[in-house]
Design brief:
The chain has 582 residues and is α/β, with parallel strands linked by helices. It is built from 23 helices and 18 strands. One of its GO terms (molecular function) is calcium ion binding.
Length: 582
């Protein structure tokens, strides 16, 4: 008898093991309830969960380094700036202090938002790859180089970096590609013209950044060349960190922050042109050979080539999840972080103008109606419901993009701006039109308030002032919009700031032939920036960047001043001329 009972017990344990193993890897919504993860409500969220779990490492979160790869899995290719915005928006909406990951509900909303915006962008006609190729050919035809023609220009980090000699040049020789190496033991301003001729003659420009040099001049160069539409392959094998030794000198926190900001601006500008950023030099050289031998553009390089593809890097992301969070918090008056079934219905109606019955919700969740009163949904779970419903609604009736879908209900609930459509409000709010953009050095400078703004007001000129007490990378899309629609860019680089991020931006806009006025001051020996005295090596690096920037401006006929008042007066004259003022 005891033996039979023992066998029965083993049979029961085996049966239970089989049942639990069956449930452990299924996407069934009931299983997700058992696993305390009420996140799958239909085909949409089931498919997204498959992509999400492929890269979450079993943690239930996508870390910053895996976000792009997970989006690539669903044919979306966000830029570094877009990934950064996703993380910041998600952290703010979920009240997380850590800003290094996103969760599944947030992932669903971001995927839908990007897909909607991709579809909208496909209806527009931006500068296509073919047009960029044509622009490049035009630039090449205008070049009368006095030096031999080389296929690849090797720009970027110089001494003590050895990437050219150790890796790039041997690989280029294997591919049978000619190259120009601009490295000289002693650099002088007279070499700028020689390098310019080599860059103009080259078919492709390969730039590498590492953690053993500042790369100040190289960042300015890359931004300018990308602005021109030149074929650039950018490789980042490392970036300087706080405490790192460069040429025997330790970087302080202030300079590291300036370098980080400049790199962020550069990557954003590069990826907005559809140019991938590589982290492996041999892969980048292979892609360079493919571009040159097969006649494709850099923008055509794909994930299969080892490129980190980017699409539509100019669009913003994060608005939809913020709107959903606002609606969620508006109904969650007790601030519990959860909504019961009735609150879910109310919030859903606020967002979509659609009634969602308790029966429909329980059907989606595959939970018996007897448990309705026990059901609650946190913000992540609510995001999953919103995303699944959006997919269902789009399948049966093309509602329009996600913004109209979300905005429409909010406008009805709160009575906002009833005379305009959601699309009109979005486009009008994001379009910032001013005559002068006050770009350049910020930090502790006062040239805007003391010189520029009084003169502009005196002449009735509108302006956009980007200077804020505390600047954040989240402001980049707003600033980019303001720059895109201004009449004249006024850029002032003062001598008491490094101004690297601003120089990178200015170089890009010079390459684009924008109407620009530049005031450029040199950093003097002994200058103190944020409590740190500028070293001789630091002075040389940032002075070299200023030389490259001034040279680019001169090549495009852009006036370069050393007096800020004269620069502002020149900008005012440009506005009058371009706007037809008398």
């Amino acid at each position: 008898m005891r033996k039979n009972n023992l066998l029965s017990l083993w049979d029961m344990m085996a049966l239970w093991s089989a049942i639990t193993s069956l449930f452990s890897k299924t996407d069934d919504s009931t299983t997700n309830w058992i696993r305390n993860r009420n996140i799958v409500h239909g085909n949409r969220t089931r498919q997204l969960l498959t992509a999400f779990e492929k890269y979450d490492g079993g943690t239930g979160r996508l870390d910053a380094g895996n976000i792009s790869t997970a989006f690539n899995e669903v044919d979306l290719y966000p830029s570094r700036a877009q990934v950064r915005d996703m993380i910041l928006c998600a952290s703010e909406c979920s009240n997380r202090e850590s800003r290094d990951h996103i969760l599944f509900g947030e992932f669903c909303i971001f995927v839908t938002e990007l897909k909607e915006k991709y579809e909208r962008e496909s209806l527009l006609q931006p500068l296509t790859t073919d047009k960029m190729k044509t622009k490049h050919r035009f630039l090449k035809r205008q070049t009368s180089s006095v030096i031999s023609r080389f296929e690849v220009f090797l720009g970027g980090s110089c001494v003590p970096s050895m990437w050219r000699k150790d890796i790039a040049i041997p690989l280029l020789k294997q591919y049978g590609l000619t190259y120009f190496d601009p490295v000289h033991e002693i650099w002088g301003p007279e070499l700028v013209e020689v390098e310019n001729q080599a860059k103009k003659a080259a078919d492709l420009l390969l730039f590498v950044f590492d953690d053993v040099t500042r790369g100040v001049a190289a960042m300015v160069e890359v931004a300018y060349l990308v602005g021109q539409g030149r074929p650039v392959i950018l490789v980042v094998t490392g970036l300087p960190m706080s405490g790192v030794m460069i040429n025997g000198q330790t970087l302080n926190d202030s300079e590291v922050q300036d370098l980080e900001r400049a790199h962020a601006v550069l990557f954003d500008l590069v990826e907005r042109q559809g140019i991938p950023v590589f982290d492996d030099l041999p892969t980048a050289v292979h892609c360079a050979a493919k571009v040159l031998r097969m006649g494709i553009s850099v923008q055509d390089l794909s994930k299969a080539d080892g490129a980190r593809g980017v699409q539509n890097a100019h669009i913003s992301v994060g608005e939809s999840i913020i709107l959903i969070k606002e609606a969620f918090d508006g109904v969650d008056t007790k601030k519990t972080g959860n909504l019961d079934m009735n609150d879910v219905r109310l919030t859903y109606k606020a967002l979509t103008r659609k009634d969602l019955t308790i029966g429909e919700v329980t059907s989606i969740c595959n939970v018996s109606s007897s448990r309705n009163e026990e059901l609650t949904f946190n913000f992540q779970e609510f995001c999953c419901i919103v995303d699944e419903y959006k997919a269902m609604a789009t399948t049966h009736n093309r509602i329009g993009d996600f913004f109209s879908f979300i905005f429409s209900g909010l406008f009805t609930l709160f009575g906002w701006m009833k005379t305009r459509t959601a699309e009109q409000i979005i486009m009008e709010d994001l379009t910032i039109r001013r005559e002068v953009f006050l770009g350049g050095s910020c930090a502790n400078t006062a040239w805007r308030e003391q010189i520029a703004i009084p003169l502009l007001r005196k002449h009735g000129i509108t302006y956009f002032n980007p200077q804020l007490p505390v600047w954040n990378l989240r402001y980049l899309p707003l600033e980019n919009e303001a720059k895109a629609y201004c009449t004249v860019l006024l850029a002032v680089i003062t001598g008491e700031t490094r101004g690297l991020a601003s120089m990178v931006e200015i170089a890009f806009y010079i390459g684009q032939d924008r109407d620009l006025v530049l005031s450029l001051e040199d950093i003097q020996g002994g200058t103190v920036i944020n409590g740190h005295k500028v070293t001789n090596q630091e002075l040389q690096d940032y002075s070299r960047g200023r030389v490259y920037l001034a040279d680019a401006a001169n090549c495009h006929g852009i006036p370069v001043f050393t007096n800020i008042t004269e620069a502002v007066e020149c900008a005012i004259k440009k506005v009058y001329k371009l706007s037809g003022y008398s």
